[in-house]
């Protein structure tokens, strides 16, 4: 039988595969903490909140007509965010979007061999995730509130617990850029130890397309780091969407009962 990943294990697996001597995930208990965060997904189901639903006085808002279904809205935003991640690793003239530092004109090799630029890049995506997924959650709650009294009550409960869940999410996922910094330094130091010309390459205080192409070829240090960073972003997006997917499950459960 084919093994099926539990929600969030993709992110844990990505981080574990990046493990180097300076980054011990078992010591930081990151996976355990992340697992507790993932468990909240189950608590979003309607049946779990049965007792609480009885105490919440809410009626469905039948006056507000919204044509988009919750599932369509979630799929739309998910596709938008996945596209944003993928396109940010591709050169473009669109300066308004998040773009990978290595593709920006005018950066010296010394700058490209410093993690600060990549940290800003990753944090920019995290802020985009948080903003768009929060708005998505608001939107799904609005759609739920039109469906039935129980769905309206669950929407109200979700609003109450959202701030706590968001704080936990932000706290646990803020460690990822720190782990990426260690991984970046590990790959760079490994490259410096293996290539006698590497230090001289980095000291060039100007753009150099030839050396940059060398760094980003298959199986090279920077190429490896960029692939891992993109995979982490996609895995983190998957995890951040879990609370919204939990609401969709509650909606599906309600529909099945009818």
Largest sheet: none
Which bin fits the share of residues in helices? 55-70%
Mean pLDDT: 75
H/E order of the elements?
Answer: HHHHHHHHHHHHH
How would you describe the shape? elongated
**Which band does the percent of strand residues land in?**
under 5%
List keywords for this structure.
258 residues; mainly alpha; 69% helix
Written overview of the protein:
Helix 7 (116-144) packs antiparallel against helix 8 (149-173). The protein has one domain. The longest helix has 29 residues, at 116-144. The chain is mostly helical and 258 residues long. The protein has helices spanning 9-17, 25-28, 30-43, 50-55, 70-88, 109-112, 116-144, 149-173, 175-194, 198-202, 209-215, 221-240, 242-257. It starts with 8 loop residues before the first helix and ends with a helix.
Short description:
The chain is mainly α and 258 residues long. The chain has helices at 9-17, 25-28, 30-43, 50-55, 70-88, 109-112, 116-144, 149-173, 175-194, 198-202, 209-215, 221-240, 242-257.
Could you outline the blueprint of secondary structure elements for this entry?
Blueprint: H1 9-17, H2 25-28, H3 30-43, H4 50-55, H5 70-88, H6 109-112, H7 116-144, H8 149-173, H9 175-194, H10 198-202, H11 209-215, H12 221-240, H13 242-257
Helix pairs in contact: 1-12, 3-8, 3-13, 5-7, 5-12, 7-8, 7-9, 7-12, 7-13, 9-12
